Amino acid sequence: MAFIGKFISFFLKEGSAAILAIALAIFFFYFKVYEPPADKTGLAVFIAAAIMIVYGFLQGLAAVFQPAGEDTRPMVDLLFSSLPALVSLYTLVQYLTGYEELSTFQLEVLVLSLLVVTHDLVINTKFVMKINRLASDFVSMR
Predict the structure, then answer these.
(1) Are 14 and 80 in contact (CB under 8 A)?
(2) Domain residue limits at 26
(3) pTM
(4) How many other β-carbons are positioned within 10 Å of the β-carbon of residue 44?
(5) In the chain, how many domains are there?
(6) What pLDDT does 69 receive?
């Protein structure tokens, strides 16, 4: 039973970032210039936004429920959270240099992913680091 709890914890914290990175890489590099049908564009953008919001929610939830005072856990979370950022930044650089063609829909997903991943890296990581520092200061004051 403890294994299932650890697996769910890993999936919510680090696994969601790895899955998003893989999904973004497949979406940007396997589906060349993907554009949804004209009558389904709004639904496709809504689904992409919902996926990004769920990812941000999972990462925020993981930051809130992370045990305070651990030194290695925030660094592992930062490492895994940077995976989708690296995929998104690589795609942006490839698009800006002209090596990769992206449709309008793919550009919208790229902007959404950059916004959510930046929020995860900056806000959630700063929150976790500050909580860990406060916990360490509290322990040293005792």
Answers:
(1) yes
(2) 2-141
(3) 0.81
(4) 16
(5) 1
(6) 63
